[in-house]
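Exercise 7 asks you to align residues with tokens for two separate proteins.
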Amino acid sequence: MTSSDNDLWKKSATDVVSLLKNNEISPEDALNSNLKRIEETHNSINAVITVCEDRARKQIKNLNTINKDHPGYLHGLPVVIKDLTNVKDVRTTYGSQIYENNIPESSDFLVERIEQMGGIIIGKTNTPEFGAGSQTFNKVFGATPNPWNLDYTAGGSSGGTASALASGAAWLGTGSDLEGL
């Protein structure tokens, strides 16, 4: 990674995927940039509440063995997953103390698809308990504020993902909206 890539976190997901596809950066470069930015922002915004670095590094090693000719549309891009969605072997709490130590044995279909497309799951984002609420806070991880003004809410229930994206701690993340059901 070149010295100008210290600002890699400021680029769009589309730009980063292009850099990955053109071999201008490696998936490790993208992952390291994400991890650094998560560390820089965590104490102030509390958006990425569980980091799965070891799992992500294993995924990167497997990228080339899955399909060498076409590693997927996401091509090694790190992705954060809302803490309502199961990721195999990664703590998933649903924002509830009831599930504080829950480690799923399988991943949700959405996570499987992201990984099939070459996405690298890097961590879980904060959510209100069971995703119910218009502000992102819970008794397991606390609150996630708006990164642009820490006195404001990030909203809910995908406020952790929203704050991660807005702060540059992630390029792509999942959310959900069940209000229409």
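Second protein for Exercise 7:
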Amino acid sequence: MTTLAMTAADARRFLAEEIRVAANIRSNRIIDALATVPRERFLPKGPWQIRGVGDAGASSGRLTDDDDPRHVYHDVAIAIDPQRNLYNGQPSLIARWLDDVGLDEGQRVVHIGCGTGYFTAIIGHVVGPYGRVDAMDVDEDLAARAGMSLSDRPWINVRHGNGTIDLLERADVVIVHAGATHVLDPWLDAMADGGRLLLPLTAEIPGMPASIGKGPMTLITRRADQWHVQVKLMMPVAIYSLKDVRDEKLGSALGQALMSGALMKATRIRRDPHEPSTSCALHGPTTCLSLV
């Protein structure tokens, strides 16, 4: 089959299978979601501004030749709002996140930072109508657009919010889709026993826009009111920063913990009051990423 003979649906399926192999995605449900959900439904009208690995360091991406929806079925980020440097992320990267966090049918998921809803739709397809997705974005316009695009999926609830209040209780998975300086109590409290929280811990990077931070993906698992940490060295990301809930003093400490390597040695989260010590990789007012 040549590219010219492909329909958008063909291109979507081809991309899904390419991601399966290139990103080593184990979940068939994630691949089926990528092959099913129409990405263009969650994007502004084309032509689209895209950014791939060959655009690293460029101030902006490239425009597609036209508005043919086949253009969106490549493993590239696509601008939602280029003026704010806001992009719909690279599908293989997000698929890797969802695979690592063990997303599966019937689960209850909190998705913080849903943007226009494309990856929320992927999550919703994976968990299916017997699951539940509570999605939110701090940008009221983006949340409204996501809610409209996802209105035919009643098991997905989209709302305007910063991800700190009225979260699902006993969530199997919490995904924070924006850069955080630290782990917040509401995210930990929302997790069911055995639940997983995945988030990028990011610090500001000199030379990059202030809205963008860089750091490692961090996986936290709850077991009987103990929160175990795995900092995923293989997946550092540059990502849009959370609004309202970042603490840049902690962001500076996070940058130091990244530089020293201490963050990579964190094994659990302490929530008990204690003084900072050499066993603290990142000590916050209510949560501490601890080495022991």
